[in-house]
Structure formats: structure tokens, C-alpha cells
Amino acid sequence: MPLFHIADTPFYGITAVVKRAEDIVLGTLFLLIASPAMLTTAIVIKFTDGSPIIFSHDRIGFKGKPFKMYKFRTMKQNAESVLNELLNNNLKIRQEFEENFKLKHDPRILQGIGYILRKTSFDELPQFLNVLKGDMSVVGPRPIVYDEVYKYREKYDNLIRVKPGITGLWQVSGRNDLTYKDRVSLDMEYIDHQSLWLDLKIILKTIKVMITRIGVY
Fold first, then answer.
1. Helix, strand, coil % over all residues of the chain, rounded to 5
2. 41-55, pLDDT tens digit by residue?
């Protein structure tokens, strides 16, 4: 006979209802506030590099279920071929990409608008649509791709106990300046200690990070 119960998700019961309500309210509010900026961004991308304006990418969600994550497109239309050529011809860049799944000086990014969107994190605004759909939360661990699963090892099962978030502990703790190991640790720390109060603190810190742009590239 079991003597205790382990919940499938850190948020359950009434807390899960409040968490979802928080996501819907904040998601709707941010989309309404940001709608003029989003429309302007869409127009600039269209006239700078044509369509598509929105970039969707497969990410791993709650309980390992895949979903399409939305972002404003900040990369050139031939970004994949540019990346493949770089990885095949530059060992240092390949090592950087395999370690972090990012490049600090990324030649795939659109000149002008691409860098502005990344520096301001405006490229992530369409993810509030993912929040309203229920694929993501406003606050949560990083949404990872399948090639990153091995980086989490035995911690992967813990990762998929919650929905990934637009922002989280890693975004307010150094972001891209952190090592991948640090990112994993911060994801686990959030999952193990998450609460509505912690969510609020992370949201407030995210606003500060967006202004200072620490660790953003």
C-alpha cells in the first residue's frame, strides 16, 4: 500500500487551474499591448526579406508531446544551408554550436531587423499564441529541440513534467552567457521549486533583463 503520492506535475488541483488562468490572462494582455509593435515588425520583415514572417519550429512540450513554437523570423531564408556550410568548414563554429545550439556571431541573422528583434527579445512575442493554445506557459523551463534531449540525460523525465515557458530562471540568470550545464540546472531548480510567487518574481526580473539586454544575442 503506497504511503505517499507523487503528483504528475508540480502544479495540480486548484493550483493548476490558477496557473492556466494566469497564462490566459497574461498571454491575452501581452498580445493586446504588443499588437502595434507586432504589426510593425511583420511589415518590416515582409519588406526586408519577404515571407514567411513567422517562423515555426518543432519543440518538446508537456509529457514529451511535440508542438510548433512560433517566433518572428530573424534569419535569412537560406539559413539552413548557411549553417550547414559553416559547420562543415569551421571546426570552432561547429564546437560552439554543438555545445550551446547557438552562435554568438551568427551570420544567418537578417541584417538590421533580425539583430534588433533578438536584442529586444521581440522575436519571441508570437509565443504568446503558444501560451493561449496551451502548448506553453508564460514561465517555465526552456523549450528544447530533440537534438538537446541527450544533454538532460536522466533529468529529461523531470523536464517534461511541466510546460515549457517563454521566460524562466535561465533567462533572468545570465541567459546565453551561461553554460549549457547551468541552463539544465536552472530548469531543474524551477521545476522543483516552482510556485505562482516564483512565477511573478521571474516575470518582473524578465522586464529588467529585456531593458538591460544582459546575455542576449
1. 60, 10, 30
2. 999 999 988 889 999
Cell of 103: 552562435
Residue 216 phi/psi, 5° resolution?
-100, 125
Q: Which three cell numbers stand for residue 140?
A: 517555465
- What is the DSSP code (8-state) at residue 134? T
Contact 178, 100 (CB under 8 A): no
Distance CA 83, CA 130 (A): 27
pLDDT in tens, 181-202: 999 999 999 998 888 889 999 9
pLDDT of 71-82, one tens digit each? 999 998 887 887
- Low-confidence residues of the chain: pLDDT under 50: 1-7
Closest CA to 72 of 5, 27, 20, 119: 119
Burial (0-12, 13-18, 19+ Cβ within 10 Å), 130? buried
Cell numbers 523551463 correspond to: 141
DSSP one-letter string for 94-156:
HHHHHHHSS-SS-TTBPTTHHHHHHHHTGGGTTHHHHHHHTS-EEE-S----GGGHHHHGGGH
Ordered by start, the domain boundaries in the chain are 19-74+109-211, 76-108
pLDDT at 99: 79
Query: How many helical (H) and strand (E) elements, i.e. helices and strands, does the chain have?
Result: 9, 4
